[in-house]
Specification:
With 84 residues, the chain is mainly α. The chain has five helices and no strands. Helix 2 packs parallel to helix 5. The radius of gyration is 18 Å and the shape is elongated. The chain binds zinc ion (ZN).
Length: 84
């Protein structure tokens, strides 16, 4: 019996993660992030419209950081763009 190499195991896990239909990857999340943030700033229910993005943000620290940075930046931009 051949022992499973760590690399093989990683590949298997990666494949399982990739094929889960109810989850998206960082790339897809990132592609949708600006629209997601736009909707939030417009007061729309972004989580309802893009539940997969919302879910990814809950489980992925990197994308969550990106989301908060984008949200903060756009809020600042809006504040400075709107007439006082
Ligand atoms: Zn991510």
């Amino acid at each position: 019996m051949t022992p499973i190499k760590p690399d093989t195991l990683k590949e298997i896990v990666r494949r399982i993660i990739r094929t889960r239909p109810d989850e998206i990857g960082c790339e897809t999340c990132f592609d949708s992030l600006d629209r997601f943030v736009d909707m939030e700033l417009e007061g729309k229910d972004a989580a309802q419209a893009m539940p997969l993005v919302k879910r990814h943000l809950e489980i992925c620290g990197g994308c969550s950081d990106e989301y908060h940075a984008l949200l903060t930046a756009l809020e600042d931009f809006k504040d400075s763009a709107s007439p006082a």
